[in-house]
Each structure stands twice: as structure tokens, then as C-alpha cells.
Amino acid sequence: MSFRFNQENTIKIASLLNRYPQKKALILPLLWLAQKQEGFISDAAMKNISEFLELPLMHVYSVASFYTMFRFAKNEKKVIEVCRTLSCELNGSEDIKKYIQSNYSDRFEIVEVECMGACSGAPMCTLEGKYFENVTPQKIDKVFNDN
Ligand code: FES
User: Fold this and answer.
1) Most informative mutation of 69, 84, 88 for ligand 1 (most atoms within 8 A of CB)
2) Cβ-based neighbours of 120, under 8 Å, separated by 6 or more
3) CB of 72 closer than 8 Å to CB of 41
């Protein structure tokens, strides 16, 4: 199985190359684009990124596996990310997680993640890359019923 960035992502990558002093600094944006393109990061995508950035494959894998935002298998369910770091935890993220597990685990997969950098909106969740602030069970119901 092989992987190639599609035309849209190839154009984005060309633009990103001008913004970074070293090509290897593109590792996170490329992993992110690969995941957006395929829904997960495949071995073939990591190999492609490794060759493009002239980095060992193990380096690409070690970066991808460090971050909770990257997935290595395609999800059948939509993924909701629930922040579990301090500000969100103090504002009820554990209760939000339990609420989602109790009511929506058949349709959505919960992934606990570290700080999303939006602590002023704690508790935070994302659904398909879209941020939701000050999440409550009522807000979860509305968001999930719209998706
Ligand atoms: S602690 Fe949750 S967004 Fe920062």
C-alpha cells in the first residue's frame, strides 16, 4: 500500500515549505495533513513523510505516537476529544466524559487529550476538529444531534 498527498495537500505543503527554515520542521503539519486526508496515519503515510523530510521512519513514528491527536487506525465512529488537563478537569471534564460514555458511546468514540490551548473555555471538547467551549451535557446533546 502506498500513500501520496493529494493535490490540495501538495499545494499546502509547498506553501508551508516557505515558512519553515528547515524541512524537518514540517513533521507535525505533514502528519496532520496525512491524518486529515486518510482519517488516520498509515504506515505508508509515515514512510512518505520520512522520505520527503529525509528523516528516519522511526523518528516520524516517535513524533506521531507522542501526540494524542494522531490516530493509527481508521475510526468507524466519529471521534470526540475531551480535554483532561487541569483547567478542564476542574471545570467538569470528567463528568462530560461520563455523560458522553453513558449516552453516546454507540455513535462516538471518546479520546481523552491533553490541553488544547483553549483553557479559558474549559471544559473543552473537539468534534472533527471543531472546538466546543464551556461544554455542558445540554451542549453535548445539541452538538451530537446536529452531527
Ligand atoms: S486544560 Fe483543557 S484546554 Fe487547556
Assistant:
1) 88
2) 133
3) yes
> Whole-angstrom Cα distance, residue 102 to residue 97?
9
Which pLDDT score, from 0 to 100, does residue 90 have?
97
* Domains, the chain: 7-66 (1.10.10.1590), 78-146 (3.40.30.10)
CB-ligand 1 contact for 125 (6 Å cutoff): no
Q: Is 135 in the pocket of ligand 1 (CB under 6 A)?
A: no
How confident is the model over 16-43, as pLDDT tens digits? 999 988 999 999 999 999 999 998 999 9
**β-pair type (108-113, 78-83):** parallel
